[in-house]
Design goal:
Layout lengths: L5 E2 L6 E2 L2 H11 L18 H9 L5 H10 L11 H14 L27 E11 L5 E11 L4 E8 L4 E3 L2 H4 L3 H5 L2 E2 H13 L4 H6 L6 E4 L2 H7 L9 E3 L16 H9 L8 H16 L13 H4 L8 H5 L3 H7 L9 H13 L1
Parallel strand pairs: 3-8, 5-7, 8-9
Antiparallel strand pairs: 1-2, 3-4, 3-6, 4-5
Amino acid sequence: MEPSRHKCAACFRQFCKMEHLVEHMKLTHHSGHEPICGICHKHCRFYDSLREHLDGPLPKAECSVEFSKRGCSLCLTVLDSPAAASIHRETCLMHSASLSVQAGSLSRTNKRVHAEKNGPASAVALDCEMVGGGQDGSLDLCARVCLVDEEENVLFQTYVKPQLPVTDYRFDITGIKAEHLADAMPVKEVADRVKRILYNGESISRVRLTGGKAKLLVGHGLDHDLQCLMLEYPSNLSRDTSKYPPLRKTGKTSHSLKYLTKTLLGIQNGHHDPCEDAIASMRLYKKMRSEVHEQKDGESTAESNRHYIFNSLRQSDLEKMTPEALLAISRPDYYCWCFDKGQIHADLVGLQ
């Protein structure tokens, strides 16, 4: 007689012993915040995995057939009918309009394009363009900065005068020449302007403790951009599309912004422009934030990250639970951006 096998209720992997399934659940942190197939309801760790499952070289046959009829190749949503899918695809494409933005001149006297008012915590996206320094031009020096808000208004953009001599302007990529930086704003002054927008009138101590009215900072490779600007910003207020687990490669390394823009937004972005890259990061963030995930009773944004219920139960009790019950108590091991919807809503209510 063949021994009974224990099937994970999330990824459908099977185990000979219940203790192995429990260990699997502890390690994988399966939850309703993962990308999930709309047909068989399999949980995937990454959007890449879900795409392979639905439309890859070796997809699951049943899901692939249904997805071709009523699925969206951009957001990977599965609709109720082919007609609903057709309408949804048009909506997705409309949301994927061109990234180009009319931001005005980059002269020294016109750097702030859209007035930013103090208000509830909302998001701004940052992107920097780098030129080369050092003997071989491999040292990244910030030469241009752009900040945009959630409505894709340019809040601040300028050329930046690096502190070190530029040895490679990387013109083919950046489009930057020596004359662009001749009268540019010094990097320290740029950093102060960026910090003023991000902190939004809050003190540094308040931002570090509670965030207050400080902005959520969106970007792709934020650590590198902030380092080149000689800035620090709290990690709990940063939303980096290169680090967000569902957007990473199956090997847990980062995708390029160009790849994410093409696969998830349907936009071909062939050249480097900090304003367009900031808008692309903002659209990716808003797309992830808009995901509708079931939020269980008693689950809070903090609890989903720092409290893991498996650690509070005995192994023997866990092994008596069904696979579905194990999934019900499991929590993600990362902060899901869908929680930001509730945070911004709460801030707005608090102002009324």
